[in-house]
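Changelog entry

Holo records now carry the ligand SMILES as an explicit input line rather than a separate metadata file. Below, a converted record for adenosine-5'-triphosphate, shown in the new format.
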Amino acid sequence: MSQHHLLIDHVSKVFPTANGEFEALKDVNLKINKGEFVSLIGHSGCGKSTVLNIVAGLQQASKGGVILEGKEVNEPGPERAVVFQNHSLLPWLSAYQNVELAVQQVFKKSMSKSQMHDWIMYNLKLVHMEHAKDKKPNEISGGMKQRVGIARALSMEPEILLMDEPFGALDALTRSHLQDSLMDIQRDLKNSVIMITHDVDEAVLLSDRIVMMTNGPSATIGEILEVDLPRPRNRLELANDARYNHFRAEVLTFLHDRHSLPSESKLSASA
Ligand SMILES: Nc1ncnc2c1ncn2[C@@H]1O[C@H](COP(=O)(O)OP(=O)(O)OP(=O)(O)O)[C@@H](O)[C@H]1O
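Structure line, unchanged by the conversion:
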């Protein structure tokens, strides 16, 4: 029996455009184990969000498919919760109510009202937001909104958490706090995670594997880097760790040497 939890199996994606068909992804294959943290990294436009959206069931593969726990997935489901870069909280609901909506969607039949309340509070506490539970999205900071978005996703008890640049719009300090929280949460809950990032340090710090994508059109997985740094990981200790810096250099070399954008190579050639 396969150990793999999630299988992205020969996925290709073709978009119809005014100039004919555009093949964004070609033959993407990836197996993810339970509890594994995988980052997707690659130049802008290479197809990272398309991969994530296909796993989320928000878009359909043109060829191939996605199999979770032995079942093909073709539509969105709470077992694949998504956190986007710009939070997608409902502005007229409080932090508590935003999480409540997700909890009701998944647990209405199996939990009593008081169990649902405890579960909502548990998830808000996980992301350190219980103190602001009654605040609306426009009353809290960007980092706090992302925390609520993560609580909402986790409250559905997803098999796999899909994150599209979840910390991309945040300042560096807030970003590092949230990265640390995410590492703590994942250590406790052991969710599988696929996270898109443009940040090489974020990828190395958080990931078990970094999936590096080639440039499109017809983008695919170029290389996969196994980051076997021991956990828990501490960003300050890692800053001077030779292995950490080796992984970092590997990703940078992939992105800026082996798979640089055409515009970048022109720049370096003319420099
Ligand atoms: N609906 C669509 N119709 C046509 N082309 C599309 C569509 N959606 C995406 N594309 C193209 O597919 C390619 C991959 O897009 P995608 O958003 O997945 O890239 P990305 O790696 O996530 O980019 P970024 O890092 O900038 O967010 C791009 O060339 C994009 O222009």
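Spot-checked after migration. Residues 15, 17, 22, 24, 42, 44-50, 216 surround adenosine-5'-triphosphate (CB under 6 Å). The two ends are 54 Å apart (CA to CA).
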